[in-house]
Amino acid sequence: MEPVTALKYTPFHAFHAAAGAKLVEFAGFEMPLRYTGDVREHQAVRTGVGLFDISHMGEFDVRGPGAAAFLGRALANDAPAMSVGQAMYTTMCRPDGGIVDDLYVYRSADHFMLVVNASNIAKDFAWLKQACPGDAELTDRSDDTALLAVQGPKAPEVLRGHVPDEALAMPSNRFVEGPLFGVPAVIGRTGYTGEDGFELYFAAAGAASVWEGLMAVGRPLGLELIGLGARDSLRLEMAYMLYGNDIDDTTSPLEAGLGWTVKLGRGDFTGRDVLVRQKEQGTARKLVGLEAEGRRVPRHGMTIESGGREVGQVTSGGFGPSIERPVAMAYVESGVSALGTTLEVVAGPSRIPVRVVKRPFYTRGSRR
Hints:
By secondary structure, the protein is α+β, with helices and mostly antiparallel strands. It has nine helices and 19 strands. Strand 1 (about 20-25) and strand 2 (about 30-35) form a beta hairpin. Helix 2 (about 40-45) crosses helix 8. It starts with 12 loop residues before the first helix and ends in an 11-residue tail after the last strand.
């Protein structure tokens, strides 16, 4: 029998339980799936402001004189060229071009912070550790770090007066370090929703102070607690990748439409040779956006056909509350990936007509 692994809790678990959240297992943690309802929570973020606990994510520190060069070799994007205070999205690839993980990199004056997917913490750390040179130091800070996201057009109002003024003036993909309700924090203008907002990193010991501070100032502004259900529909409307569904070790950044995260014109990095070849020759398949006719929803794992022939598979699918229609992402053969191409999703004995459309599906977000 497989050994039973105890679920982990984030520093905010007691607050979720007290708020009446439906708690489920996710990436080894007991996490809130929803509080009041997925659609209500989704629309709260689109029109107002929501608070997410995403402390299940992993955080690594990379320090030392060789840190920049090490990350230059390990990551597909150009980490050595980052400026202090910059946050950058990137992929980390295998020698065959497969994606080990997609992650964010934050560059401080004396170190880099990597933010990795919760399900990949152990895998990513082992992958990086075996390649880490003697002049760089890699440390897993995941268990000691709390992470909250405040997302929505009203997010700056919630934080005004409780973070440094420059945090509210900075554009997307920048961050500052400073007090957050008196707790030292990294305050990033980043997110996974398509709306304006912030991701807040701080020591787990400060969890109660920050949570209670956010709730006290946020509730009068309509702040709502947001679970994993709405987080998924928000990111799907934006066509943001979910590792394990839309990308994994068997998919390359170029197949997934993440070529903008790959800087082939700089020095060597893991997977570059394969990605150069894919760039020159093209890929046999591509990740596309699909819009369904009617109200039936294509779901993860469903087969896609063209003229009765299998041509691909759905990776993520759902109903978009803000766009009021079912959408999906799928890998399909490159020959049927052009915008406007009509296909069929196999749903048991019937078919769902779909059309290849431009990503993202939702384009009215407040994110700058």
